[in-house]
Design brief:
This protein is of the alpha/beta class and 188 residues long. The protein is built from six helices and ten strands. The strands form two sheets. It has a six-stranded mixed sheet with strand order 6-3-5-4-9-10. The N and C termini lie far apart (33 Å).
């Protein structure tokens, strides 16, 4: 399948406020435009997850990251550059995102994926994209497309037709970097 065709089809769905099921640099994800509050609400409903539990976003690059985080700690860019595996960073002072995506303590988890489809999609949408594991809350994270539950497949508006055979053993590492300089490893 042609990546450009998939990007264009997926962009159309995201711009209409729809939900997508897509391969990321880690696991298959459920996504939407991270600035669309109604679309974010649909993800919480599909996952049967409380909206007090924050979701991860993907952005194309450092420039886009600055759009959603008021003050990026200097260590963040170093961590992004030296990380050998996908790393999600939780930042203080989130901005310009759907209010129901930002945690109660005003933080947001964002990753710059090392994946051409995710990069192009975020860049062309010119927006952060929600990326939460493709499972119902409390169920195991699917390691492959074949393990995704039927209710998730039926609950999205579009399933990206790329990397269906990919096996994903591990979600990203998660690190919290507070503006006060405190670093906390949430998941390795």
């Amino acid at each position: 399948m042609d990546i450009n065709h998939e990007i264009n089809k997926t962009l159309q769905i995201l711009k209409e406020g729809g939900l997508i099921l897509y391969p990321t640099d880690t696991v298959w994800g459920i996504g939407c435009d991270a600035t669309n509050e109604a679309a974010v609400k649909k993800i919480y409903e599909l996952k049967q997850r409380e909206d007090s539990k924050a979701l991860i976003c993907l952005v194309a690059d450092d420039r886009m990251l600055k759009k959603y985080v008021k003050n990026i700690p200097e260590a963040a860019l170093d961590i992004i550059d030296i990380s050998e595996k996908p790393t999600t960073i939780i930042y203080d002072d989130a901005q310009n995102l759907a209010p129901n995506l930002i945690a109660n303590n005003d933080t947001i988890a964002i990753r710059i994926p090392d994946d051409e489809f995710c990069y192009q999609l975020s860049r062309k949408l010119n927006s952060a994209i929600v990326s939460t594991s493709a499972n119902i809350s409390g169920q195991p994270t699917p390691k492959s497309f074949k393990e995704i539950a039927p209710e998730v497949l039926k609950g999205v508006d579009y399933v990206v037709n790329l990397q269906r055979e990919k096996i994903c053993n591990k979600p990203s590492s998660i690190i919290k970097l507070s503006n006060s300089g405190i670093v906390k490893i949430i998941r390795t």
